[in-house]
Design brief:
The complex is a heterodimer of chains A (about 425) and B (about 80). Helix content of chain A is about 20%, strand content about 30%. Chain A has about 425 residues and is α/β, with parallel strands linked by helices. The longest helix of chain A has 20 residues. Classes of the chains: A alpha/beta (about 425), B alpha/beta (about 80).
Chain lengths: ~425, ~80
Amino acid sequence: MRLERGYFRIRDLLFGAETSLANGVLTVNRDELTRVLLKEDENTQVASLTLEIVKPGEDARIVHVLDTIQPGVKVEGEGEFMPGQLCDPAIVGTGKTHLFANLAVMECAELPWAGKSALLYARDAIVDMVGPAAAYSPFSETFNLVLRMTMKDGASDVEYDESVRHAGIRCARYLARLLKDRAPEETECFDFDTPVDPTLPRVAYVTQCQNQGTYSNTFLYGKDVGNIVPVSLSPTEVMDGCIVSGNYVWPCFKIPSFLQANLPVVMELSRKHGRSLDFVGVVFDRGHNNSHFEKQRIANLAASQVRKLGADGVVISWEGGGNAATDAMLTLQTCEKWGIKAVAFTFEFGGPDGTEGVLLVDDVPEAKFLVSGGSIEKPTLIPRVKRVAGGDALRLRKETGGEPEPADIERRLDNITPFYCGGNQSGIGRLAGVGY
Amino acid sequence: MQKEAERAGIPTALITAIPSVAKSVGVSRIVTGGGIPYPVGNPSLPRDREIEFRKRLVEKALEAISTEVKEPTVFNVSL
């Protein structure tokens, strides 16, 4: 497959009379867009929707962050950007795609979290635009169009989940159509059709998503991947948004749709393809399989896809916490057993200074090389901010069922789990390492 | 908990859905359970078979604590 990506970087984001893009300034007609998101979605369970703009460097905090989407549009080639989401599940990854490089559509809402324990206890996801926590999230550097939503009463979790996602996707499509007939400032071409030097090392990437039911889902070509068998995808398909996130648990580990379409390992290996290596493909599967048997089965099938791609080496990463580490480690183990060199990304525990107790949830003797995504047990002081977007309150204490607390005040958080993408294992972040 | 009990001379067995984690932290006797949401059962089985499965898990755990082990050892039961 061959894909050309055209990028558009904006200088400013404003509300105004007409939705337009001129000289790098994106103006959004708030009323029109609100109508598109609410009135034109006949199935929506969104009761109210307010559009808010949050800019890089602003003294602001965004709360209740669910998914974050990059607006993109197919200009040439089959299908639509984010195929299968309110459109046909046509196979993407060829032709041309235009994207806003630094604009993010952010879905923000309080979900009706059901429990006080386990997976679905009330929790919050924070993006700080300033202060020490800003570096935890790549979205402190983007212009963010926030969809601040409240939900109607009496709908099911599946309906809330769908409504939130559809609002984000409709919004992204509404903005991305502005890019359809324009010449991008910057383009990148990813050519997987032309044969490469056969002596180059052959490298595959396994990306394992989170999937544990509604609010903890990932979608491939428009359908949740609960029963997925590991599948190999072209890197360009992934760049065209065939993986969409519906995962709102563990904000620090979450890989939002924006990142799913720009997975750092996919981008880096694609840029090196034909030069220093041969990127043979992406294997996509899910973690959090329930039993040891199911974990080993999926790990074996994922490794089998890697072997079929003819890889000499493989990079593995996973979304989610402990449970999913086992699925990934078993995948690594099977690859190594078959002579395929494997390396994985992982978060760490280790207490405030990184040395306490057990550092990893799981590991196998074959895991000789691991890349740290950082410790999730660092305490962080977040400052008082002038403005809060996305909602009014923070819900951080699961013991009280997520009792709302002021969101704008200075506060010390014991660990980084509420910071959106803060313990992410996909390879983003500004962490530096020290060898000792 | 298990390590402390063993240090006091009481043999232990852990029924767990993820034996690999138990192995890597050095648990002595590991019995592979049903699944993460249901380590000592399996609700996808018909009722009678599930009761039988639970019984086998407990019996296997008892067998495990009667067995001398030198390193982390996994005991399995059939579904």
